[in-house]
Amino acid sequence: MYDVKSLKAEEFINDEEILETLKYADENKSNRELIEEILEKAKPKKTGRGVECAGLSHREASVLLACDIPEMTEKIYSLAREIKEAFYGDRIVMFAPLYLSNYCVNKCVYCPYHMQNKEIPRKKLTQEEVKAEVIALQDMGHKRLAIEAGEDPVNNPIEYILECINTIYSIKHKNGAIRRVNVNIAATTVENYKKLHDAGIGTYILFQETYHKESYETLHPAGPKHNYAYHTEAMDRAMEGGIDDVGLGVLFGLDKYRYEFAGLLMHAEHLEAVHGVGPHTISVPRLKRASDIDPNQFDNGIDDDIFAKIIACIRIAVPYTGMIISTRESEECRNKVLGLGVSQISGGSRTSVGGYAGYSADERPHDTEQFDVSDQRSLDEVVKWLMEGGYIPSFCTACYREGRTGDRFMALCKVGQIQNCCHPNALMTLQEFLTDYASPETKKIGEELIAREILNVPDEKRRQRAVEYLNEIKHGGKRDFRF
Ligand code: SAM
Which among 448, 411, 409, 441 is positioned nearest to 427, based on CA atoms? Predict the structure, then answer.
């Protein structure tokens, strides 16, 4: 039976409840009155504490996703834009993945790291190689990484991951620093989550891949990842281990997208109900071609329009949750979805183990690559492109370093302090990028943008301090200011 507060996977992600939700959504997909009502509920509203959004239940959001009235679909997009604007403004946070090891004991049928794939050489970075990769990433201008590894208790035990995190944080090359390390590794024990927490990780990210239990078991035929309950309950263990920023995700293309969407929101509702805080981020990866993997083997692929609608509906349903897209997506697709609610994107990414150090911007090693990267532009090019599109690329990591994780981050959103906090932080970290790493053209566009945007910090004192800090970065050689 469905129970949002249960700690059992099959009760908080309940198949029956999802099927009923899909039926309800189908019955109401042309119900204009209900759709209007749902949109009204989700609108940002001014309260005594600032602007707040109520969000939506998985049932309500599923009606929006199923909605087949073109005019209403337009309203869904415009509400998603309004919510994005209210909480995230034009800021887009930048990050890069760092692949540590492709050794893996699982047999995920969609992933090239599966243990039977003999086409790819297996590789695990030494600490010296981690250092070289981090220096290369710092030299591009990155401050935030997501580390990635296959699951292999012998080759990549938790001690190896912890050692890598330690190495990453310790490297200070020129003005560079990695200030937040997010971690995307297989489901593990409470004890290991405690260790990750103590190592100072940012978000613990784990994609569910699919919420459909039967498909999950078929897609993960062997290895520790085969266990649906252990995987699905991982975020509860992570939170028990003290990590209060967790990142959910579905690998779209594996099962039916409407089923996944309902499951994803039920998972978010579960975390909120049990731990008092929803997911910090939601990722929306789509299945890609890779070594030994042909995405056409899977018949649930979604086109760019459905992808955009999913993103818009997630934005409306969980308004305070960050949303991430990676370089799996092309420039064109990224352009389309940025305005609908995406708040974080990767730039200059390499998905191979050891893909950064020793390679020029247009040289890419393919042998250990996890999947094809669609957006192959450099970080500088992505930053410039974002600014030309009216966005503010941000390298900010302040919340986590000021202890504003979990519900404390959500509180900042709710009291409307974003414009006095996130906005200047974004501009100051962008200035660091421009001063230390940008091409002359990117720098010129960026400095004009900062001069304009700094005027939009409402609090006068805060604005003046931010202007002083910007000068210190540009002319005084100082770094790492934050509010
Ligand atoms: N090994 C960890 C685990 O099992 O959760 C996480 C690391 S894995 C490198 C990161 C993610 O890549 C997976 O969770 C999966 O969603 C995604 N992935 C795997 N194969 C893919 C493919 N062919 N196309 C796109 N994404 C893929």
Answer: 448
Q: How many residues are recorded in the chain?
A: 483
The span from the CA of 100 to the CA of 97, in Å, is 10
Three-class SS state of 46: strand
Scanning 67-225, the segments in alpha helix (DSSP H) are 70-88, 127-140, 158-170, 190-198, 213-219
Q: Which of 207, 210, 369 to mutate to test the pocket of ligand 1 (most atoms within 8 A of CB)?
A: 207
Closest among 172, 180, 168, 140 to 433, alpha carbons compared: 140
**Angle (nearest 5°) at CA 154 between 148 and 160:** 50
Encode pLDDT of 178-231 as tens digits: 999 999 999 999 999 999 999 999 999 999 999 999 999 999 999 999 999 999
Summarize the chain as % helix, strand, coil (round to 5).
50, 10, 40
Cα 469 to ligand 1 centroid, rounded to whole Å: 40
Rounded to whole angstroms, the Cα distance separating 356 from 379 reads 12
- Take residue 244 and report the two structure tokens written for it: 């209060």
362 or 434: which carries more pLDDT confidence? 434
Cα distances (angstroms) measured from residue 222 to each of 219, 329, 403: 9, 29, 39
Interval between CA 111 and ligand 1 midpoint (Å): 6
One-character DSSP codes across 118-140: -SSPP-B--HHHHHHHHHHHHHH
The dihedral of CA 228, 199, 246, 336: what is its sign?
negative
Distance CA 271, CA 239 (A): 9
